[in-house]
Amino acid sequence: MKKFVVFDLDDTLVDSVGGIDRWFVELSEQRALGAEGLSFLRAEQQRPVSPEETFRAIVDRFGFSESPSELRRLFWHRWPHLVQTVDGVPENLGRLREHGWRTALLTNGREDQQRPKMRDGLGDYFDVLCFTHDEVASKPHPEAFRIVERRAGTALRGGWMVGDSLEDDIEGAAALGMSTIWVSGGRDLPTGGVLPDEVVKTVDEAFPILLARGAHTS
């Protein structure tokens, strides 16, 4: 196998969902919403609606002076700074590189939105960084993966993709001949669709798999 791996960022290497909850906690404390208000915010996050509807519901519920779009801008300004790196990720990425792995980051989003989430020197552990919303295509479009391929100077086929989205990460990568590791976050694997080669609950479980597979090529 090839020692080349592409990682997703949000809810793979960093805890983006946890950052949303931390913003809700900050908001409820700053505006004295109380425990009931925080419960409403957390429940609103789980509703299968658009972000616009979510922010409108929050403004309506609490009578905020901001419009829904203004509150959403406040969120986007603060949220990236509340996202935390998953424990052990920098050390594990460093270990991969020590064992001869080439590494790439492929994340949907603009660089100015995603960079603040990449603390703990995270960007230093990659040979290639690709922020797709600054490019011509986003995952799962093949061109998003091809950009990484060209910049890394390493073919995708035979390499690995690690991510939490079955559609964007797993199906997109598998279509180009990559092996895949799905970071489930405890979710059950749905029936139908492309199956990942490996399923892990958190990304820390993915690194031993990669190191073990890579050892067979040394």
Concise description?
This protein is an alpha/beta fold. The protein has two domains: 4-15 and 84-215, 3-Layer(aba) Sandwich (Rossmann fold); 16-82. Helices cover 44% and strands 14% of the residues.
CATH architecture of the largest domain: 3-Layer(aba) Sandwich
How many domains? The number is: 2
Please report the total strand number as a whole number: 8
Structural classification: alpha/beta
Look at the structure and give the CATH class of the largest domain: Alpha Beta
| Helix content bin | 40-55%
Q: Could you name the CATH topology of the largest domain? A: Rossmann fold
How can the largest sheet be summarized?
6 strands, parallel
Strand content: 5-15%
* Regions with little confidence, pLDDT below 50 for 5+ residues: none
Gross geometry: elongated
Q: Can you walk through the features of this model?
A:
It is a single chain. This protein has 218 residues and is of the alpha/beta class. It has 2 domains: 144 residues, Rossmann fold, CATH 3.40.50.1000; 67 residues. 44% of the residues lie in helices and 14% in strands. The protein is built from 9 helices and 8 strands. The strands form 2 sheets. It has a 6-stranded parallel beta sheet with strand order 5-4-1-6-7-8, sandwiched between helices. It has a two-stranded antiparallel ribbon with strand order 2-3. β4, α6 and β5 form a beta-alpha-beta unit. α1 packs antiparallel against α2. The protein is elongated. It starts with a strand and ends with a helix. The mean pLDDT is 96.
